[in-house]
Amino acid sequence: MMLRRMDLFSSDLPSALKSMSTGELVKVSEEVRSRILDVVLKNGGHLGASLGAVELTVALHAVFDSPHEPIIFDVGHQSYAHKLLTGRWETFDTLRKYNGISGFTSRQESEHDPFGAGHASTALSAAVGMRAAMNLKGDTDHWVVAVVGDGALTGGMAFEALNGVRRVSGRLLVLFNRNGMSISPTAGSVGRSWTSEDFASFFRLFGLTYMGPTDGHDIGALLASLKKAKSLDGPVVLEVHTIKGMGYEPAMRHHEAMHGVEPPNAVNRKPTFTSVFGETLVELAGRDPRIVAITAAMESGTGLSDFARRFPDRFFDVGIGEQHAVTMAAGMAARGLRPVVAIYSTFLQRAYDQIIHDVALQSLPVVFAVDRAGMVGADGPTHHGMFDVPALLAVPSVTIAAPADRTDLKAMLEHALTSEGGPHFIRYPRAYAPDSDLPIVQGTKARKILVGDGRCAVVTSGAILEKAFNIIQLQLKSRPTVWDVRYLKPMDPLMLEDLARHRNVMVVEESPQPSLAAMIALQLDAMGSDAQVRSIGTGDSFVPHGPRDTLLERHIAWQDLTCQD
What we know:
The structure is a single chain. The chain is of the alpha/beta class. The chain has three domains: 5-246, Thiamin diphosphate (ThDP)-binding fold, Pyr/PP domains (Rossmann fold, 3-Layer(aba) Sandwich); 273-427, Rossmann fold (3-Layer(aba) Sandwich); 447-560, Rossmann fold. Strands 9-8-10-11-13-12-17 form a seven-stranded mixed beta sheet, with helices on both faces. Helix 19 (406-418) links the parallel strand 12 (399-401) and strand 13 (424-427). Helix 13 runs parallel beside helix 19 (406-418) and helix 15 packs parallel to helix 17. The radius of gyration is 25 Å and the shape is globular.
C-alpha cells in the first residue's frame, strides 16, 4: 500500500502498520522521527531515548496487536514514537505542556498505555504481573512485551522480576534495548564489560530463550526477529542494539546533554540550587578527604560532574540502584567517611526502607542532597518531589533542611558535613537559587522574615518563600508574622513559642498532605496553644505536569491564605 501522511493521523494506525511493506515502515519511521524532533525541539522533552527507539517501536506495532498485546516501556523517555503511532499524532504538539499529553506513558491517556512509566526498572515486574493475570483469565494466545534497556538492568527490581519469570511462563517477550546508556553511560559491569554472549547466558539462567543481537535501526531485521520470537511459546528475550539520539547528529554526539532538552524560550537563570550544591561540595571536599559523593545514574543532573572530575576516587555512580546507594553510604559512614548521596526526591522514595533501617536507626552521618524537591515541572506527577517531607518527618532523629537561597544552601551543607549524629536531608527544587538579602541565620534556627500584628502567622519552607511573601503582601490586609522555618526537623523552639501566641497559623508547603502543618499543629497543641493551624498546599491530590511557575500558581491553595478572626 502507499503510505499517505494522513494515515499517521489515524487512531487505527497500529492496525494499518501490519499490512505495510518494509519500505513503507521505513517511511513511517522517518515521519515519526521528524515529528519527534519538530515537537521536542520546541517544547522540550526527552529526545535521545525516543529517537533511539523509533524503528523498534514501529516494528513492535507492526508485529504485535496493541492494546490486546500490551507493550510496556520501562521508562517513558523512549515512548514518544509509541504515542505517535497510537492516536496521539495530532495532540503531540501539546507534549509536556500544561493540560497536554504526558511525556511518559499514562493509563489515563490511552488504552495503548497499559502501564504508567516514570521510574526505571519496573517494566519487567509489570509484564510478569500482566502475564500471570492473562494466564489466570485463560488468555494464553496474546503476548506481553516489555521494552527494557541495559540501564534498567542496573536496578535490582529488574533482577527480582527475572527471578519470577519461570513461575508465570507463557508468551512474554523482553525486548532488551542495549545502547550502553541510561542518562549517562550505563554504570557498572552490566553496561561496560558484558558482551552479548554474557547476556545470553544470563537470561538463559532465568529460563528465557535468548535471541539476537539484532540491529535496532534495521526495520527488516527487526521484523524478522520479532516474527521469529512470536513463533515461540516464550518467555523470550530479544537483544537489539540501538544508538541513543539516532538520526539527529547533536543527540548522537552529546548523549547526556541531549537526553532531555529545554524549549528554546526556557528561562535558565544561573546559578541553580543544583549548581550551588555541586560547587560547594567540591569546595568542602577539597578541605575534608573524608567526603565522598554517591549518585544513582544522575551525575550531571545532581550537579556532581565537577566533583567526579576533581575527585574520581571519591565519586561513585551505582547506576539505577537507589537502595544500594543508601546502604552503601551507610557502610561508608560506619567506617568513618562522610558520604553525600545526591538524589532526586522522587527517586529517594525508592530507598525509604534503607533510610530508616540502615541509616537513621543506626544514627549514621549520611548527608542526602535531595534535588528536585517540590514541583519539578513538565516531567509531572511521577517526578514531582512531593512526598519526601511527609515520609521523612515520620523518621526519628533525622535533620531536614530547606534552603530558601544560595547562602542558606551553602551553610546547610557545611553544617551537615561537620555535624555528628544521624542523617541530614537538604531538600531544594529545580530552580534558580536567589542571592537574597535575608538575614543570615546560623545552625538550625528559623528565620523571622516579618513581625506581624499578632493576628496570624505564616510559615514557609524553602524556595517557595519568595512567591509566598509576594502573595502575602498582595492578598492579606492585616500584617502577618512570617517565618522561614529553614529546618523542618528539628524545629526551632523559639519559632514555635512565637507561633503559639497567634490565633491563626498558615503553613505554605508543596505537599499533597498537611505534612509540615500537621507537625507544627502537634507541637503547638503539646505546648497548650489554641492556635488554629492550616495547610496552604496542594490538597489530597497528585499534581499534573506543566511549567513549575504555572503549577505553583494553580495547584497551591493560595485562596486560603487569609487571616481569620
